[in-house]
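Please predict the structure of the following assembly.
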Amino acid sequence: MSIQSEDVLKIAHLARLGIQQEQVESYASDLSNIMTLVEQMNQVDTSDIEPMAHPLDQSQRLRTDVVSESNQRDALQENAPDIEDGLFLVPRVID
Amino acid sequence: MYNKSLKELSASLRNKDVSSAELSQYFLDRIKHFDGELNSVITSNEEAALLAAQQADKLIASGDSGLLTGIPLLHKDIFCTQGLRTSCGSKMLDNFIAPYTATAVSKLEQAGAVMLGKTNMDEFAMGSSNETSFYGGVKNPWNLDTVPGGSSGGSAAAVAARLAPIASGTDTGGSIRQPAAFCGVTGIKPTYGRVSRYGMIAFASSLDQGGAMAKSAEDAAVMLQAMSGFDEKDSTSVDRPVDDLLANLGDSIKGLTVGLPKEFFTDDLDDDIREKIEEAVDTIKLAGANIKEISLPNINLSVPAYYVVAPAECSANLSRFDGVRFGHRCESPKDLEDLYKRSRGEGFGDEVKRRVMIGAYVLSAGYYDAYYKKAQQVRRLIQQDFVEAFKEVDVIASATAPSVAFTSGEKKGDPVSMYLSDIFTIGVNLAGLPGMSVPCGFVDNKPVGMQLIGNYFEEARLLNVAHQYQQLTDWHLAVPAGYEQEV
C-alpha cells in the first residue's frame, strides 16, 4: 500500500493533527513502509475466524448505577490551560 | 548495599542496620551521582520520599512492616502520581500534575515502598529505544553508546545501574521485556488484567499491562505480588485471587516441559544470541526440565497485526489530548480547529504522530474490515497457536530480542526496522499472556535476555523457572563497569 502526500494531509486532518509541510513526504514514505509491513497479514486466510477484541474474551463488567465520585472540578481544572468560572475556555465557536 | 536483594534489604531494615531514610538517601545519592550521564530519572521526588521513608521507619519500629516497607523504588512516568508531574515522556504533558494516583502505585505505597522519582520513557510508551522521549534518550549503563531499549528504558537502565532496587514498567508490545534484556535486568509482564490500568496513561488499552523490573526473579515476584489484584476502577481488571508468587519460587522444575518455538530460532536471530539462549536452555534442562520443539505457525504475523491494533487504539486514546482540558495548548489559536491541530502538532513527537495517523487511517471509512477486523482475526490465530502450544508444554522459552542493545540513532530514522526489534515479544501481548525476560549472558559485553512465556495467570510458574535458573547462574548479579563503586 502506497500512501501519497495528499493521503497524509487527509489523515492528519481526520486526526486533528498539525504537521509541518516539509515533513509530509517523509511521513508518506514512513506510513507506506508501515502499511507494507501490515499487509503481510494478507498471507493468511481468516475468513472463518472470529475477531478477537480482548485477550481474555471478557465482556464489559457492569456496576450498580449509584454516585461514586465526588465533585472535584477545581482540582481537575488545575491542569487546564484556560478556565473562567469553572468553565473551560476555547476560541469562539459560534459568532 | 546496592546489590542486596529485597529480602536482604528488608532484613537490614528490620534489624535496624539501616533506616529507610538512610536507604532512600543512599539511592538518591546514587541517582545524583550517576544519572547525569544516564538520564534515566526525569523527575525527583526527594523531599516527599524522605518523609515517606520516615513514616516507613515508624512502621518498622512498631513491628508492623512487610517485605516492601521502607524499600525505595522508581516509577515509570506513565503512572499517574498525585501532586508529582506525570509527563509520559511527552511535551504534551510536560506541565501535567496528575490529580490522582494510579492503583499500581497506590498498592506499592500501601505496601510501604518509597517512591524516589519517575523514570524516563519513550513518548507515550511508543518506541523500542527510549529515543522518542521529549526529555532526551536514556543511555544504557553497559555501553553508553547504545540504547537501553524501550519503552521502559529509564526503569531498566536505573535498575541496571543500581539507582533503585526495583522499578515499575509497562509492556504493550515488549516494553518491559526488551529493555530488561538490553540492560541485563529481570522484568515481568503479567497476564493482561492482572495489574490495574487505572491511572496508567493508556496507549493501546487491549494490550497495555503494568509490571515489575528488578535485579532478580525473586525481587520481581515481591514487587509484582504487591502490584497485582482486582481493581473496580479498571473495567478490564480481572476479578480473581492473586496467587502467592513467592511460595513456589524454590520448587524444583524437574519434569517441567519447556517449549522452544522453531519460528523464534530462525535467521532473524543473531547467532551469538542463539548460542546464549541454547546455553540457558541447557541449564534449565540440567535442572530437570524437558525440552521440546514446538511451533507457533502464525507468530510471524504478530508485528503486522500489532501495527494495526496498537495504532488504532492509540489514535482513539490520544484523542483526549485536545489542548482544552489539560496538556499542552498552542499560543493564540485562531479557531477551535486551529487549537486542536496546533496543540497536538506541537505537543506530540514524530513517532506518536506516525502512530496516530496509522490508527486514523486503518479505522477510516472503507478500511476497517481490511485492516482492523483482519488484525483482530490474525490476533485470534496467534492466540490459538499459544493455546495449542500450552497443551504440550508448561513454559515457552526464546530470546527476548533478536539482537543486543543497538547503537543510539541506528534505527531512529527507520520505523519499520525499529518495530522489528520486538518480533519475539509482541505476540505475547496480542494473546494477553504473561512473559518475562531474564539475563542469560553477554555478547560483546552487552547483556542478552532469555524470554519465558507462561500460560494465562501462571506468573508463579514463570517466576519459579526464572528463580531456579538464577540459582544456577549469576548473570543477574553482574553490575555494569563504573557503577559498582559506592558514592
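The longest strand of chain B covers residues 435-443. The radius of gyration of chain B is 21 Å.
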